[in-house]
Design a protein that fits this description.
The complex is a heterodimer of chains A (455) and B (346). Chain A is of the alpha+beta class and 455 residues long. Among the domains of chain A are: 95-211, Uridine Diphospho-n-acetylenolpyruvylglucosamine Reductase, domain 3 (2-Layer Sandwich); 215-323, Alpha-Beta Plaits; 330-415, Alpha-Beta Plaits. Chain A has helices at residues 2-12, 21-26, 48-61, 113-120, 139-145, 152-155, 188-192, 226-238, 251-260, 281-296, 309-320, 322-329, 345-359, 387-404, 423-426, 429-442; strands at 17-18, 41-43, 65-68, 85-88, 95-99, 104-108, 125-126, 162-169, 174-178, 200-208, 210-211, 215-223, 245-250, 271-279, 302-305, 332-335, 362-368, 376-380. In chain A, helix 1 (2-12) runs antiparallel to helix 3, helix 9 (251-260) crosses helix 12 and helix 13 packs antiparallel against helix 14 (387-404). Chain B is α+β, with helices and mostly antiparallel strands and 346 residues long. Helix content of chain B is 27%, strand content 27%. The longest helix of chain B has 15 residues, at 209-223. Chain B is globular. The chains are: A alpha+beta (455), B alpha+beta (346).
Amino acid sequence: MKALLSALRKQLGEGGVLTDPPARAAYSMDALTAVRTRPQAVLLPQTQAQVVEAVRLLHQAGVPFVPRGSGTSLSGGAAPVEGGVVLALHRLNRILKISPDDRTARVESGVANLKVSDAAAPYGLYYAPDPSSQSTCTIGGNLAYNSGGAHCLKYGMTANHVLGLKAVLADGTLVELGGGHEPVGPDLVGFFIGHEGTFGVVLEATLRLLPRPEAYHTLLAAYPSLESAGDAVARIIKAGLLPGAMEIMDRLAIQAVEAAGDTRYPQGAAAVLIVELEGTRHEVSAEARALEEVIDVTGAFAVRVARNDKERAAIWRGRKGAFSAVGRLSPDYLVQDGVVPRSRLGQALTEIERLAQNYGLRVANVFHAGDGNLHPLILYDAREPGAFDRAEALAAEILRMCIRLGGVITGEHGVGVEKRGFLPEQFSDTEIDLMKRVRKAMDPKGLANPGKVFP
Amino acid sequence: MNIDTVRDLLDTGAAVAPHGRDSKPGLHAPGRAVRASSGILAYHPEEFVFTAKAATPISEMVEVLANRNQHLPVDPPFAHEGSLGGLVASGLSGPGRFRYGGVRDFLLGIRFVDGQGAVYRGGGRVVKNASGFDFPKLFVGSLGAFGLLLEVTFKVFPAPQARRAFYLETPDFATAHQVLIRLANRPFDLEALDLLAPRRLYLRLAGRATAIDKRLRALTTELEPFGEVQEAPLETDPARMEGEMLVFLPTAPSELANTENALSSILDQRRYQAGGTGLWGTLPESRRPELARALGDHGLTALVARGRTGPWLGIPPKGEPFFQRVKSVLDPKGRFPNPFKVTHAT
C-alpha cells in the first residue's frame, strides 16, 4: 500500500491523496448511512488522465477501489470496501461542450446533474433526468446507477439520455462508446449504464438535451385516503393522459415535509397527489381540462394548481425534500425503491401498511405513482437494540412483495450493497452467473466497486 | 423453431444467423438461419407494457395496440413486413422517434438464447427498472451478435387523439437545415421533424384533438416566412422509399450540410429524420463502392437496411474492444454473427 500511495501521489499530487483519519472518516459512507467502512485512502483526481493513471496503478497493485461522485447513493453504491480506496470524482467537473444545434452536452463525470441543465438553459434546453438529489448528485453516479427521477414514465431513465461515453475499464483499458442520437450497432452505451461501478470509471459522457417545455401545469390534489389517490392515478392513465410526473405522498411523509418547511400542503390529507403536465401552451391547456374532469370525480377534498413558477417550485419543494424531511421525524431510516406494476400499487401499499404494523415500525410512503416505483421510508432508531435488524427485515419483506407482484427490487437507486442479497430472488442463478462473467470480462481482478450488486 | 433445434444447430459448430421475417436481408449474416416463434404473450394496456415472441410481426403489435388506443411511438421502419425481434436487433427507428426516443428507449425486457445455448431473461416487465445489467439495451442494434432473441417486452404509450402532418417547401437546403435546427430546439413537441433533401421539411403534430388545430396554426404562422406549407401524409415508413438499396446513417444535426455535400450525388433520395439525427438514403447497387468510399472519407457508417450484403458500409462504429469483451462471454465460440469482423468487398 505504501508504494502504491507514493506512486499515486506522484500522479495526483500531495493534495490528491488523503490518508488522514478525518478524511477517511468523511468518506466512510454514502447516503446509506447504516453501512460504514473506513477506506485506506481517498484519491481526488482533477483530470481524466489522472483517473486513468490511478486506475492503472490500483489494478497493478491489486487494490480495490470505489468510485464516488457526491456520495448520495441510497443503496450504498459508494460505500467503501475494507482495505480499499475511494476514488472521489467530484473534482472532475468540467462541462466540456454544450452543442445546442445537436442538442447535446459533453460533460465530465463529476459534474452535478443540475449543472447540466443550468449550462443548457441559455439555449432553451435542459437535461431531463431529475433525481431528488439533482443539485448535488453527479452525472457519473447517475450513469453508474441508471438514476431516475420524477419524469421517467414519459422520458425514461438516465440510460435513455446518454448518447456516448468515455470510460476507463477496471484493468486500465480506455473505451469510447456511442456519441450520436441514433447510433448503429449494439447499444453498448446503454449496456454500460447501470454497471454500478463494476466495469470501471466513466470519465465523460455525451448527454441528450431536450427543449424546455413551453408550459407546465402542476396540480396538487389532497385525498382523504391513500387508496383514493392511487385510484386517481389509474383514472388519469385510463383517460389516455401521459403526464410528465405523477407523485404521491402519504400522511406521514406530508407531516414530515410540513414540519420541515413552508410547503403548506392542504391540512388533514391522508395523501397528496402531484400531477404535472408539460408541453406546448395549447396542448397543456387541453390536457389540463381533461385532467380536471378526471380529478373532479376522484374525491379530492382540495385541489391546487400552481399559477406561476414560484408556486410550482413550492409544490415540488415538498416532494423533492421528502427524504431529508423524514430524517427529522426519526434519527434513522431506510429507503426502499421497489417497483410494482402500476395496477398493483394499491395492493402494495396496503401490504406495506400491514407489514409495518406487524413490525411495530413507522413507514412513510413517497412514490412515483406513474411508474409504480415505491419509496417506503422505514423509520427506526439505531440506538434502540434490534431496531435496525427489524427495519431491515421489514425492508426485505417489502422487496419480496414487489417481486411477487411482478415487479423488481429497484427502480432507480440500483442494487448496491443494500439489495445485493435480493438479486437471487429476482434473477436465476444462471442469470446472475452471466452478469458475474460480464463483470469479470471488464474487471478480471474484481477490483472495481467490489461487494456491490452481487450477493 | 424451438429452442432445442437452435441448441442442436449450435452443437454442430455451425455459424448461425438470427432471422425474423426477412424484411431487411442486407442485415443478415451468412450462416444457418435460426428463428424465434411468434405470438403475443402479454399485453396490459393499463401498465403500458407489451410482451411478445420475437418473430411476431410488427404490424400485429401495431394493430393490437391501436385497438386499445395505444402505440409504440417510434414509427417502426418496415412496419408492414418486419418482426419485433428484427426491430430490436436492427436498432432502427423511424421519424416518430423524434418526440420520445427510439427503440432503445422503449425496450424493457428480453428473453434470449446465447452462443452456448443457454436461455436468459434480461430487464423486466415494468416500466422502470435499475436492477441487474441492462441486457435489453445490449440487444438493440446487436445484429444478432449476442444470440437469438426469443421474447421482447416494450413500454407503450397512449396514442394521440389527433395528428396533422405537413410539408414546408423552402427555397434551398441551407434554409431547410436552418429551420430544422430552429424547430428541433424549440418546444413545439413535434412528433416528427424530417428534412427531405434538398429542401422540403416534413412535420407531424400529435396530441389532444381540441388543441391540434391551434398548434398547427401557431406553427404554420411561425413558418410562413421560410416557405410554402402543404398537407402531407401521416404515414412515413422509410421502407417505402424506392430504390435497390436503402441505407441508414447516424448523422449530427450540426453537420448536415457536410453530409449532404458528401452524399447528395450518391444517394438518390435522402430523408434526414428526427431533427437530423439519422439519414435514410436510397441508391442502386452499382453505386455501392462509391458510397463506401465516401463514407470512409467522411468517417461515416451506413447500415444496409435493404441491399445484397451488409450489415454496414464505411467506418465501423466505436467500441469494438468493449464489444469483444461482452461477446467473449455470451458467444465465446463465435457461433453468432460478429458485425465487427465482416469485411466488405465494397
